[in-house]
Every structure is written in structure tokens, then in C-alpha cells.
């Protein structure tokens, strides 16, 4: 299981202020276990966005948003709703946002932050990787995480060492920021490269003290009141 927390509503509204029509997607896997997903959560967000005079073109929950094949299959009946949207709001961990971004040619905004649960989250066969940084910025980087795609974990790239699209640390590996550039170009959002991404706050990586007191954090312990 991968642990997620809601992004503050104020942050989401700031991100979406230029977006008039939004399609909402949710993962029916890990977020449901963390109480950050499910149909009730998605429909509540729909209501909140409509209060802000946004048009929600559609809402869908997919069993596992980290599976690109499953995403492609499930969105086929909803392609018109997605096409009519300016962007997509995704309730998922970083893996799901990355997978969704790879499938849908629109800006995909993460509605959640992924935080560390400690230990190993399980086997994952896809190419996407999440650094569980607690402050997801995938909407600025074309759905490609700079902290996992770039061995140097550069928040603002590319460095001067890349050559012919390859990383200077591992010449057989694609430059992470070259991938970000190509992804932003694909969705017509190269202007997002002008955004300065501030150094990340490592205090956000760990779950909040309140969450660490619950059974979700320690399943074999009694909940602390």
C-alpha cells in the first residue's frame, strides 16, 4: 500500500484557477485504504469545484490508476468528456498521476500528496517511480517526477552534463529533464518550464503526527486516543 494525504483545498484551487473545465479521475486501490479516495471523495470534490463555478465534465474511478493498460481500457467510453476538459484532476499516488499523464494528453493535477509509509511498498513492474516527497509537483513537469527520473534529483533542470538526451551519470539512461521537456511539448505546455520549483521541504515526507497515532500507521496497535 502507498500512503497519501489530501493536498490543501486552497492549493488545489490556486493550481486550477485558470482551468474552467475539469475531468476528475480516482484510483480505487491505495487511496481508498487511506481514506483519500472512493466515490464519495470524488463526488465531494466535484461539488466543491462547482461551487467555484468550474465545470466538471466527468468523474471516474478506476481500480488501479498505476496500470496504464487498465486506464486506456476504462476511459474509452469517456473520451469525449476528457477531450472537453481543460485538464484532469487525479486522486492517486504519484505512480497513478504519472501513468495517467502518459495516457492522457492533458495536464494532470495531483489532488493528493504521497508520503512515506516506511519499509517497502511492494513490487511494481511499471517504469514510473514515486519518491514519496509529500509535495507532488507532477502538474509542473508533464507527469514525470524529476526526483526519480533524474539521478541528481534536480528540481530545475536540465544540468549541463546531459549529452544527446542521455544522463552523464548513466549514459544508457535518458535524461530526466529531456523526458520532462518532451512530455510538456506533447501537451503544449512548454511554458511550465519557466516555473521555478523551490527546494523541497523534507519535513513533508513523513506523515503528520495525527496520522501516526492511528491504526492506519500501526495496524497491530490499538488506536491512540
UniProtKB/TrEMBL annotation:
Question: What Pfam families does this protein's entry cite?
Answer: DUF5981
InterPro entries according to UniProt: DUF5981 (IPR022026)
**Methylene-tetrahydrofolate reductase C-terminal-like domain segment(s):** 109-202
Q: Which PANTHER family match?
A: 5,10-METHYLENETETRAHYDROFOLATE REDUCTASE (PTHR38755), METHYLENE-TETRAHYDROFOLATE REDUCTASE C-TERMINAL DOMAIN-CONTAINING PROTEIN (PTHR38755:SF1)
UniProt protein name: Methylene-tetrahydrofolate reductase C-terminal-like domain-containing protein
